[in-house]
UniProtKB/TrEMBL annotation:
Organism whose genome encodes this protein: Wenjunlia vitaminophila
Pfam family membership, one: PTS_EIIA_1
Primary location class: cytoplasm
UniProt name for this protein: PTS glucose transporter subunit IIA
Matches recorded under InterPro entries: Dup_hybrid_motif (IPR011055), PTS_EIIA_1_perm (IPR001127), PTS_EIIA_component (IPR050890)
Length: 149
């Protein structure tokens, strides 16, 4: 079983509360979302694994069992063209849970007119394959967001 932990501090809100129909409808995959604490922050790896995709606003880590986890920093933040985001690892790097991957500022994202809400999605999964999904309540870095069996 893979446990996926929060890449940032904030509040778990569930995917259905994400202000984007693709994420809210779990079209990318099931999971949850975190409304992050405002201010400068680092998004960390939610699992041990390899960074297989890395953009300033999003990254995917695949764990040793082949489970891919997408962390998307805000909604429509690709439109910011990387401004306000700093990648701290490289694609292909092996990371451990909790290692900083991207430095960013959710308050600056919000000031730019974008939602700072962060979907954390189990790629190529079904809702039935997840358990213990956090959909409300405060989370800190490392809090369990969901388990994947």
């Amino acid at each position: 079983m893979t446990t996926v932990t929060s890449p940032m501090a904030g509040r778990a809100i569930g995917l259905s509360a994400v202000p984007d129909p693709v994420f809210a409808g779990a079209m990318v995959g099931p999971g949850t979302a975190v409304d992050p604490v405002r201010g400068p922050a680092e998004a960390v790896a939610p699992v041990d694994g390899v960074v297989v995709s890395l953009h300033p606003h999003a990254f995917v880590v695949v764990d040793p069992d082949g489970h891919g986890v997408l962390v998307h920093l805000g909604i429509d933040t690709v439109q910011l063209n990387g401004v306000g985001f700093e990648t701290l690892v490289n694609k292909g790097d092996t990371v451990t849970r909790g290692r900083p991957v991207v430095r960013w500022n959710p308050a600056a994202v919000e000031a730019a007119g974008k939602s700072p809400i962060c979907p954390v999605v189990a790629l190529e999964a079904t809702r039935e394959s997840l358990s213990e999904v956090a959909e409300d309540g405060a989370v800190t870095v490392g809090t369990l967001l969901f388990s994947w069996r």
